[in-house]
Amino acid sequence: MVSNAILPKIEVHDLDFYYGEKRALSNINMVILEREITALIGPSGCGKSTFLRCLNRMNETIPGARMQGRVLIDGVDIYSPEIDPVDLRQRVGMVFQKPNPFPQSVYDNVAFGPRILGLTQSRSEEAEMVERSLRQAALWDVVKDSLDENALELSLGEQQRLCIARVLAVEPEVVLMDEPTSALDPIATLEIEDLMTALKSHYTIVVVTHNMQQAARVSDRTGLFWLGELVEFDETDRIFTRPKEERTEAYVTGRVG
Amino acid sequence: MSGGLRAKYDQTYDEIERDVLRLGAMVDQAIRDSLTSLEQRDTALAQQVIDKDEEINALRYQIEEACLALIATQQPTAGDLRAVVSAMNMVVDMERMGDHASGIAKTVILMGDQPLLKPLIDIPRMARLAREMLRSSLEAFAARDAKAARAIAPRDEEMDQLYRAVFDELVEIMAQKPGTVERATYLLWVAHNLERIGDRATNLVERIIFITTGDMRELNV
After folding, report:
1. Nearest CA to B49 among B12, B97, B102?
2. Which of A171, A178, A224, B188 lies 20 to 30 Å (CA to CA) from residue A250?
3. Which residues of B touch A241 (CB under 8 A)?
4. How confident is residue B6, by pLDDT bands cut at 50, 70 and 90?
5. What is the ipTM, given to two decimal places?
């Protein structure tokens, strides 16, 4: 399951995170390789979503939140002053648990980002971009004859794929996913997982999931978070067949929640 | 290991473990009875061993089914997964041990009324060793004791040496007295079956070490 990619895309060094006085993450060190799917698992409240948001500076929008340590993408510290957070969030896109399409047409949902960023020069380039993104999100065949219809008419699974298309339309390098299938039925879940597997040939994917079997199914590497610490981080096959840490064993075998 | 969660899983696995031990007891009895049938020239007992081999086969398949169902429905991982998969593999080795005991019994029937070629000394030793290796393996399996399992592995060396001694002795006898070839060959078959039981026990040891440590490697290479 491990890809041929050996280059680090994201490096996290000595990361601590606080919400006010409360320490949510302690001393996280992690290397995420490019074009792999890295899954982050762990009990509720263990810090995995907080950690995910550190990777595209989404935590900055939270008052009282503060981070120490470094996050490098392609060797560059993303928290250094010369980095524009908006640019960063184009390169490092995010998909959320609850699908959140804009209350607009399917077409406009996908075209919105590229338009704002001036990524396309003409209407036909824009339409090509929309089609390409919808194809990448395995949604084109579903919506190609109804691009003008309101996105909210789509099923939840389709809405989530639309949100993925929206992220892909601005040509990111990394796609972060925070419990992307928690709100979806089992079939839609498997469709998103298949999509993730297809996407990893072009994008680096980091997914937070409380569904352990999902982490086992889709990811190349898995990290277990526990009370704000990164307990173990290894190839997914190893984590699920012979983990090194007792806490990992206890968690993946379902003996503790 | 259980913290209250997954009680159903633990219960189901415990049943599988009990069945594996039960299978071990059946195989142990088969080895014992096959040797008794040889020592006492008891062809009726030999036939019993052969007939009971069906029960050993049936239990092996029952255990495999139970393991398959557990994997499919409960998605065990890590140590749980290693234990279930190992149990599936171990019952195959144990069922083959039963076949070897059955093979000894079949040889006893073939020997019929012919007098024993020589007093049996090393062959019963091999049988005792085989049964000890099997019993120790099952104890180590139940206790998840890799150290105890490893201690069994060198005994296969002992078994090979005994087999070598039996082989050399019987070949010598056959060379000296051609009329003894048939009876000597039967005894060789018995010894060979016991030696194979020892090899199978080494496989069990490898599995037990795998369950506990995640390390998969061949011993006594």
Report:
1. B102
2. A178
3. 77-78, 81-82, 214
4. confident
5. 0.76
